[in-house]
Specification:
Elements: H1 3-12, E1 18-22, E2 27-31, E3 37-43, E4 46-50, E5 53-55, E6 62-65, E7 71-75, E8 81-87
Antiparallel strand pairs: 1-8, 2-7, 3-6, 3-8, 4-5, 4-7
């Protein structure tokens, strides 16, 4: 996946851009952001639960998380997972780690 192309595309849509990497079995439970969020998996295997509905995105697939929606992100694989995450410019709270 070309990070520069993703970044350019998302910025043209009014979003900022960040990257997070998590170790095997990492879970970020019950996050809520003030703004809409997009996540795209670039390597590994994750599960994103949004208000009880489970998504298992493929590499390159975007997952949209509506503002003020409780969600959980799980690294389901046995290796590091890398994903790009973004929030609407000016309003986002970067709650995931670099």
């Amino acid at each position: 996946m070309n990070s520069s192309l993703i970044k350019e595309n998302w910025r043209s849509r009014g979003y900022s851009f960040g990257v997070f990497q998590d170790p095997p079995k990492q879970v970020w439970a019950n996050f809520v952001h003030k703004t809409d969020e997009l996540v795209v998996l670039t390597e590994g295997e994750i599960e994103i639960e949004i208000e009880g509905k489970v998504h298992q995105p493929r590499i390159g697939e975007e997952v949209f998380i509506t503002a003020r929606t409780s969600h959980t992100v799980r690294n389901k694989g046995m290796s590091m997972v890398s994903a790009k995450a973004e929030w609407e410019e000016g309003n986002g709270e970067y709650l995931l780690h670099d």
